[in-house]
From TrEMBL:
<feature type="compositionally biased region" description="Basic and acidic residues">
    <location>
        <begin position="184"/>
        <end position="202"/>
    </location>
</feature>
<protein>
    <recommendedName>
        <fullName>Secreted protein</fullName>
    </recommendedName>
</protein>
<feature type="compositionally biased region" description="Basic residues">
    <location>
        <begin position="207"/>
        <end position="223"/>
    </location>
</feature>
<feature type="region of interest" description="Disordered">
    <location>
        <begin position="184"/>
        <end position="223"/>
    </location>
</feature>
Amino acid sequence: MSTGLIIALIVIVALVVVAAAVVTLRARGPRHGTNLKRRFGPEYDRAVARHDGDAKAAERELAERVERHGDLRERPLEPAERERYEARWAAVQERFVDAPGDAVAEADRLLAELAGAKGFPDGGHYEDQLAALSVHHAHHVEGYRRVHRVAQARARGAHDGGAGTEEMREALVEARALFDELVRPSAHDRGRHRAGADDGRRSPAGRGHHTPSVFHRHQTKES
């Protein structure tokens, strides 16, 4: 076989490999984008809008978030921890009646602390924490973003963060969805706690023991 023929064959093979790679990438691209859109939901649309409609740039950003935070495993809350967080959120809602701006700022602090307790990046690194939350709770991060925006504006001196009472109420309601997601026990945790309760019923030391509810604690205090 002549040298010229060998070179021609090598060139042909190289072209076939490049063409196959291009076809593969084109086939994978839309599917990859569809997967990200399904995973991130409204957060996907926000990313596209932030990149002035450039879907590819938005998908690169979202893929980087998944790469950075996709392996994060949320730490389960102990029942007493969960009860404390729920009591604090109830206090935030009660405070909203008389001081909506203060209540929204407290909700922002509470969500940052709760997310940190669950194993997400520390609340002192808000952008990183929000990015991680968006990977695992994409459909519920906008409320946190809204209350944080109000809290930051208030910290800079704007009265009630420049938001009206109704806007703050809507932000708090939306943020509650993320709070519920974070505070709710996972199926694995519920199974573990049920197993522990069964052991307690079988064990003499565990009989009759239960964690008092927030309501019962208040009753005891007032009686």
